[in-house]
Design brief:
The complex is a heterodimer of chains A (422) and B (449).
Chain A: H1 13-27, E1 32-36, E2 48-52, E3 57-59, H2 63-74, H3 87-104, E4 110-112, H4 123-140, E5 146-149, H5 154-164, E6 168-172, H6 176-180, H7 186-198, E7 201-204, H8 207-216, E8 224-226, E9 249-254, H9 263-276, E10 280-285, H10 291-300, E11 307-311, H11 316-324, E12 327-330, H12 340-346, E13 351-354, E14 367-369, H13 374-386, H14 388-403, H15 407-421
Parallel strand pairs in A: 1-2, 5-6, 6-7, 7-8, 9-10, 9-12, 10-11, 12-13, 13-14
Antiparallel strand pairs in A: 3-4
Helix pairs in contact in A: 1-15, 2-4, 4-5, 5-7, 9-13, 12-14
Chain B: E1 2-10, H1 33-62, E2 68-72, H2 74-83, H3 85-96, E3 100-102, H4 117-135, E4 141-143, H5 151-159, E5 164-168, H6 171-174, E6 183-185, E7 192-196, H7 198-205, H8 220-229, E8 236-242, H9 256-270, E9 273-276, H10 278-284, E10 290-291, H11 313-323, H12 326-330, H13 335-345, H14 347-351, H15 362-365, H16 373-396, H17 400-409, H18 419-422, H19 427-432, H20 441-445
Parallel strand pairs in B: 1-2, 1-8, 1-9, 2-3, 4-5, 5-7, 6-10
Antiparallel strand pairs in B: 6-7
Helix pairs in contact in B: 1-2, 1-3, 1-9, 2-3, 8-9, 11-16, 13-16
Classes of the chains: A alpha/beta (422), B alpha/beta (449).
């Protein structure tokens, strides 16, 4: 299995999903080797054998490696191509890049690459090098199926397939259209398309994504299968105590503040609710390229006294944020799946999600609205804050619903796909 | 001769428009006129008009050998008057033949029989008056919304002067007994009960066009054979169904109208059965046993209970919030409030909030204008919030009798009410006030909790 990240070193839902899936696969007797660009040594290896791509030796003499290496020269990095990066990681990434550049000069015929495992400036180059590593691993180890997660690893998957002749499954956690809308990066699109075209099966995380794959990438529908994501059961059953120091109700947005997540719709809906009910506070937790624009919009609407920005939240702070929230809103414009509403529901927070999210396909006990329909969104928020039974029904049935979304069942579908290929 | 009792339910609710929370206190019109008109017209031309034609044809051909019974809710009657007067005219033609019985029911097609005897009585009276006015007959037999029935309802119905009532032949009621006899209520033995034969009724309403049903296609020959196979000692077969079965649930292309015409013809020709109305049956036959029903039943779903309308938190909150003002509304003389009071009680609103069909929604999705029960609840509660504000404002400006009821119903307004000061009421001004009158400031800042 090729992935770009693995807990605890994650920037989004991808690593978490890979971890859950591998744990589920273990229960169905599937033995997984997981290749990450950079292993830090503290990853959980309870379910997988983690292979650090940075430790793998690549034989540069082999012509097939040369072919891949040549491609690197074609791939220039688009400047808008930093899909997941957090700002505090940025500095570090740039310095690491410099280090790699220096090492390049002394490259001989057989060598190891140092990967940053991040989403930095030389991402395209890392992707291509990772493909070489993939090919090398494929040539030197025993396995039955290759499974590649998201476009970053597709080249590695394809290379591994070419070397070994084993079947390839690619897993679409997000498409370039989800990340960038219509201003998509053509290089990324091409890697995604090629990866799916070469693959024997394409797994999509929702029917929403499946449709995009079929319509925008022209992939044969027969080989595209939806396996909805699931959520790991909480490590402790104990919920974080709400340390709420304000008496008002709290409505939360938690995610990257980017085009894809629809933060502006949350603000417009907040404004509508506040016109009627001042006893509510809205929180936008996260960071992203639209953050400044959002702060300006909130100021313009004159709701800053009831609207708060927290910046990027991690780990325990996320749990604390959920514990304080009375309603969680995910207004995503395009969300292949969207795991955060499930986390909110598990913390007993009722959620409002956009119909344009894959997770809407598997949930009943939530409010579903179109991301652009701010009236409906405001109405849903207002209803959850004012009508008791709705709140209580969401909590009662929502928790049960989430607990039934098990990685074990998702993994069973994946295992069945493997079986159909070997 | 043995009797077949053929009764059709006619009902259309006033569907609510999308009503947002920011409309509360600002806009007091709640109905989706476009949808209501569109649906009323469609069903009129697909179902009511052609089905009435078939029945009229049968009556003209067979005279007193063919009889049929209707129950038409008050809200359906209002919609016909408003959108499809030809349907009223068509029912009037049927009424004129004298072969049609019209049943009494709650005007609002409500579930009020379960919780408020005074309002229950008011609605039944309003409905009886409407039937009398339109069709010139006063109903003598009663059927409750969704055939909801219990011992307590039986007592109330008897008290209103009805001697005959229709309900579901539910298993939990009958056990091993057959629905094909006349029964009576065990605690109120003067109330005779006709029980629906759900097997034979559902063969038409649900299964008629189901191609995977082993008996498909259902022909009049086959159906009449089933009727004739019934033990000769059994006295009546009660076929109760939604009238929308004909042409709406079962489309015209399925041959349902041909069946509606052919099966009575066949029955009359074989001369083993006659068609009777509930009041006739109740007059002619003696009840064979008493039926005890401590827990309310209905004709819905496999469970034949109330869970389609009441029982989840959403339904219960909406239902109890609505009836908090029933004491005030009993004395209310404001025409707009009374209209909304009726329309908001329709059982349909609560049906849309049912969550038990997330797994097998097939049948129910069709009737439901909302994407989910939560959307239905949200919209209804927004409307209800506005309605409750209006009712309370009305009560604060009304004479003593209403104020007393208010104090009883809404503890919180107590201190504001000083009866002596308010007695020279502005009642006339209030009733004439236009619907969209500007709401007082207070309503805007404080929606109902």
């Amino acid at each position: 299995m090729f992935g770009w990240e693995f807990p605890p070193h994650i920037t989004g839902g991808l690593g978490t999903a890979c971890f859950g899936l591998t744990k589920g696969l273990l229960k169905h007797g599937v033995d997984v080797q997981f290749v990450v660009p950079k292993a830090y040594g503290d990853e959980s290896q309870e379910a997988v054998r983690l292979i650090n791509a940075s430790d793998v030796t690549v034989m540069m003499k082999d012509p097939i490696f040369r072919e891949y290496w040549n491609q690197i020269t074609y791939m220039e990095i688009g400047s808008n191509l930093i899909p997941y990066v957090g700002p505090e990681d940025f500095q570090q990434m740039v310095s690491e890049n410099l280090k790699v550049k220096v090492e390049e000069g002394s490259r001989v015929f057989s060598e190891k690459f140092q990967f940053s495992g991040k989403y930095g400036h030389d991402l395209m180059e890392e992707v291509a090098r990772y493909a070489l590593v993939g090919a090398s691993i494929a040539a030197n180890s025993e396995f039955d199926v290759i499974h590649a997660h998201d476009w970053l690893t597709y080249s590695a998957g394809v290379a591994a397939k070419k070397i070994s002749g084993k079947p390839l499954v690619v897993h679409m956690h997000a498409t370039e259209f989800d990340r960038s809308g219509e201003n998509y990066n053509e290089n990324v699109y091409e890697i995604e398309r090629k990866g799916m075209a070469e693959a024997d099966r394409v797994i999509t995380v929702s029917n929403l994504t499946r449709n995009i794959v079929i319509e925008r990438y022209h992939i044969d529908p027969d080989k595209v299968i939806t396996v909805h994501n699931a959520v790991e059961p909480p490590e402790t059953t104990e919920l974080v105590d709400a340390e709420k120091h304000v008496k008002e109700k709290i409505v939360t947005f938690l995610g990257r503040i980017t085009f894809q997540k629809g933060p502006e719709y949350f603000i417009e809906a907040a404004c509508k609710v506040l016109e009627r009910d001042k006893n509510v506070r809205f929180v936008m937790a996260g960071t992203g390229d639209l953050m400044e624009k959002m702060i300006r919009r909130v100021a313009k609407l004159k709701i800053s006294s009831n609207f708060h920005f927290t910046g990027f939240l991690k780990g325990e702070n996320v749990d604390r944020m959920f514990a304080m929230s009375d309603v969680y809103v995910m207004p995503s414009v395009s969300e292949p799946f969207g795991i955060s509403p499930l986390e909110a529901m598990r913390s007993n927070v009722p959620v409002v999600i956009s119909k344009q999210s894959g997770v809407a396909e598997v949930l009943d006990h939530v409010m579903k609205v179109d991301f652009w329909d701010v009236d409906a969104m405001a109405d849903a928020i207002y209803g959850l804050l004012h009508y008791k039974s709705m709140h209580s029904m969401f909590i009662e049935h929502g928790t049960e619903e989430v607990n039934n979304l098990k990685w074990e069942s998702a993994a069973l579908k994946v295992a069945d796909i493997y079986k159909s290929l070997v | 001769m043995r009797s077949i009792c053929l009764y059709f339910q006619v009902h259309q609710p006033f569907r609510l428009r999308t009503y947002r929370f920011f409309d509360i206190g600002a806009d007091h019109y709640y109905y989706d006129d476009y949808q209501n008109k569109r649906i009323a017209r469609r069903i009129a031309s697909d179902c009511y008009i052609p089905a009435n034609e078939v029945l009229l044809g049968l009556i003209n051909e067979f005279g007193s050998a063919f009889k049929v019974t209707f129950s038409i809710s008050g809200s359906a009657l209002e919609q016909f008057k408003k959108y499809t007067p030809e349907v009223i005219a068509s029912f009037k033609r049927l009424a004129k033949t004298g072969n049609v019985e019209f049943l009494a029911e709650t005007y609002a097609h409500s579930l009020v029989g379960l919780n408020d005897p005074a309002e229950f009585k008011r609605q039944v009276e309003q409905h009886a008056a409407a039937i009398k006015e339109l069709f010139g007959v006063t109903p003598t037999a009663f059927r409750n919304t969704e055939l909801v029935y219990s011992n307590s309802i039986a007592g109330q119905v008897l008290e209103m002067g009805y001697k005959t009532m229709l309900t579901e032949g539910a298993k939990q009621l009958l056990g091993w007994k057959s629905p094909n006899y006349l029964y009576c209520s065990a605690p109120h033995q003067r109330l005779k009960l006709l029980l629906r034969n759900y097997q034979l009724s559902d063969d038409i309403t649900f299964r008629f066009s189901q191609q995977d049903w082993s008996e498909w296609p259902l022909t009049a020959d086959k159906y009449v054979k089933w009727l004739n196979d019934i033990d000769p000692k059994q006295e009546i077969v009660n076929l109760f169904m939604d009238y929308e079965t004909f042409g709406e649930h079962q489309k015209a292309e399925s041959g349902i109208f041909g069946f509606l015409r052919a099966f009575p013809e066949q029955v009359i020709k074989t001369q083993r059965w006659t068609f009777s109305t509930p009041s006739e049956v109740s007059e002619d036959l003696q009840p064979v046993a008493g039926i005890d029903c401590p827990h309310a039943i209905s004709w819905a779903d496999e469970e034949r209970d109330l869970t389609a309308w009441l029982g989840n938190d959403l339904q219960d909150e909406a239902f109890s919030s609505l009836y908090k003002v029933s004491d005030i509304m009993l004395h209310c003389t404001d025409a707009d409030l009374n209209r909304d009071w009726n329309y908001l009680q329709a059982s349909d609103h609560f049906y849309y909030m049912c969550t038990k069909w997330f797994s097998d929604g097939a049948v129910h999705h069709y009737f439901n204008p909302y994407g989910s029960p939560y959307e239905a609840f949200l919209n209804y509660m927004n409307v209800l919030s506005d309605f409750l504000i209006r009712v309370r404002e009305y009560a604060e400006n009304e004479p003593v009798s209403v104020i007393e009821a208010t104090v009883k119903a809404v503890g919180t307004t107590k201190e504001k009410v000083s009866p002596a000061a308010k007695v020279p009421a502005k009642k006339e001004i209030k009733t004439k006030a236009p619907v969209a009158a500007k709401p007082p400031k207070k309503a805007e800042s404080k929606p109902r909790k």
